[in-house]
Amino acid sequence: MSPTRRQTLTAGAAWLLAGPSRAAEPLKIGFLVKQAEEPWFQDEWRFAEQAAKDKGFSLVKIGIPNGEKMMAAIDNLAAQKAQGFVICAPDVKLGMAVERAAKRHGLKVMSVDDQLVDGAGKPIASIPHMGISAYEIGRQVGQGLAEEMRARGWRAAEVGALRVAFDQLPTARERTQGALDALKAAGLPAANLVDAPQAKTDTENAFNAANIAFTKHPGFKRWVVFGMNDEAVLGAVRAGEGRGLRQDALLGIGIGGSQTALNEFAKAAATAFFGTVLISPRRHGYETAALVAQWVAEQQAPPPLTLTSGTLMTRKNQADVRRQMGL
Ligand code: GLA
Asked: Does the keyword Protein transport belong to this entry (predicted)?
């Protein structure tokens, strides 16, 4: 018998034996994220902890950088008698595996940030999801870039548009598509688009991707930069700086607004990281954890799909915007 299988039987037996008294068991919810080192996910966890404190359940936080760690984490949750979990998986194509594991262990599951898909690439509707309104937020990025280009008197025809791309993730693709469409609507010629595919969604991989793209396209003296999150844009900004493209020749707007962006805004002199669309780690962390806890306690399932909005935040208006968002 495989260790996983044995664990399953034990968990199942415990469930049966506990019988009616099980209701008295303390409520325990898991919160699994793909990139625990990223400030966005740290914030989500912090707000989930707050929900646990407010609502009286315990929270188990586990980083799941790959599929193997993800499966082990779900088994681990079951072994320690958790009753449900929130997940941002390392690969959305693991959706069916997540759903099967949750069912096998009798765990409620809700996804956050990255919506899980089935074998055909279709979102799994039976797993409740909270994510950002990706395309719309991408458009806010593009509009912000276009507006600042105008303010600086840059001619769209002469500006390169660097898209740090991670197209295997639907929310990433939709975000950058929204930004691109807004830039085109503002007059950016389609031919000025340069794609920089990143191997992983962190700053280092964005840096490498942008470096290659800048090298291949030496013709542009000015650039706008966008990507799926702040890390993507920051990587490209650092790559630009390394080639002498400074704040007057490079303009980037990210998505997130967590510490990655705040550190950049805190620097004495403005960098090419002009702004970010601030999204809500509070909603994604606090609400999802509370919703899963409520699902376990009261058998009331979360809404099938919740899409959250964002607000453009720049170095200048950061304090006001953060206050308005309750951060
Ligand atoms: C994805 C990204 C994160 C963050 C969230 C927001 O998971 O990888 O950086 O942008 O979406 O939902």
From this structure: no
Question: In the beta sheet, which residues pair with residue 85?
Answer: 30, 109
Residues 301-325 have a mean pLDDT of 95
Look at residue 288 and give its three-state secondary structure.
helix
Spatial separation of the C-alpha atoms in residues 273 and 49, rounded to whole Å = 31
CA-to-CA distance for 60 and 76, rounded, in angstroms? 10
Output the residue whose Cα is nearest ligand 1's atom 6.
113
Contact, 128 vs 234, CB < 8 A?
no
| 112-167: pLDDT as tens digits | 999 999 999 999 999 999 999 999 999 999 999 999 999 999 999 999 999 999 99
> Would you say 281 and 107 are in contact if contact means Cβ atoms under 8 Å apart?
no
CA gap 321, 313 in Å, rounded: 6
Phi/psi class of residue 82: alpha, beta or left (left: φ > 0; alpha: ψ in -120 to 50)?
A: beta
Q: In which order are the strands placed within the sheet that holds 305-308?
A: 58-63, 28-33, 84-88, 108-112, 129-132, 305-308
For 273-300, what is the mean pLDDT? 97
Q: List the structure tokens of 226.
A: 């966008």
187-228 pLDDT per residue, tens: 999 999 999 999 999 999 999 999 999 999 999 999 999 999
pLDDT of residue 327: 78
**Separation between Cα atoms, residue 261 and residue 51, nearest integer Å:** 25
Nearest CA to ligand 1 atom 9: 229
Supply the pLDDT for residue 23: 52
pTM: 0.92
φ/ψ (deg, to 5) at 208: -65, -45
Which H or E run includes 159? strand 159-165
Q: Is there an atom of ligand 1 within 6 Å of 133 CB?
A: no
CA of 306 to the centre of ligand 1 (A): 15
CA of 113 to the centre of ligand 1 (A): 5
Q: Would the CA dihedral through 322, 179, 230, 121 be positive or negative?
A: positive
